[in-house]
Amino acid sequence: MRGSIGYASNWMNMNRPIRILFLDDDDQRHLAVDRYFEGRRDFVVDHVYLARQAIARLQERRYFLICLDHDLEKSHERLVGVPYESGQAVADYIATMPRRMLPAWVHVHSHNEAGRENMAAAILLGAPQVKVTVARFAPAMAYWDRVARFARQWSRA
Predict the structure, then answer these.
(1) pLDDT in tens, 134-155
(2) Among 8, 13, 15, 149, which is least packed, fewest CB within 10 Å?
(3) SS3 state at 41
(4) Residue 131 forms beta bridges with which residues?
(5) pLDDT, tens digit, for every residue of 105-125?
(6) 36-74: b or e for each residue (b if 16 or more CB lie within 10 Å)?
(7) Given this model, what pLDDT does residue 8 score?
(8) Where are the domains of the chain?
(9) Residue 77 CA neighbour count, 13 Å, CB half
């Protein structure tokens, strides 16, 4: 699924780092993202483990890319008394965000096929100008290379 990529070309500013919000319940995936972007000043990654943390960040600042996991069981197991949260709450929030706060790109990753398709559909319905990609797995190195390449291209547009 894809939204319009033209929206992103108007979004970037070469004088600011490219901001990424990464929502996942797996510590290893967070570490892999950190390793990839280690020492790179042109990217800033904000890490969150819960849907409500992601929504709070989205209310504070605008992101170029948001990576969303659907099933966040590990966060739920780790925090006693916290009700189950999924990435769907974040997708629904993105669909209702003011245009000035929308990201250029949302990547939905989850083993839960129905969950990831529902998240992508919600975003595209409410914010069709956002580029949306879906995959079964969290982003791998080749994916981050693609993000960096697209971000640089869009920042020059």
Answers:
(1) 987 766 777 778 777 877 776 6
(2) 15
(3) coil
(4) 105
(5) 999 988 889 999 999 999 999
(6) bbeeeeebbbbbbbbbebbbebbeeeebbbbbbbbbbee
(7) 47
(8) 6-156
(9) 6
Q: 75-114 b/e with 16+ CB inside 10 Å = b?
A: bbeeeeeeeebbbbbbbbbbbebeeeebbbbbbbbbebee
pTM of the model: 0.83
129/52 Cα distance (integer angstroms): 24
Residue type present at position 65: L
What gap in Å lies between CA 45 and CA 30, rounded to an integer? 10
- Provide block-wise average pLDDT over 10 residues at a time, the chain (157 residues): 46 71 91 88 92 96 93 60 77 96 93 91 96 80 78 67
CATH topology of domain 6-156: Rossmann fold (3.40.50)
The H or E element that residue 115 is part of is: helix 113-126
Q: What order of strands is seen across the sheet that includes strand 105-109?
A: 43-48, 18-23, 65-69, 105-109, 131-135
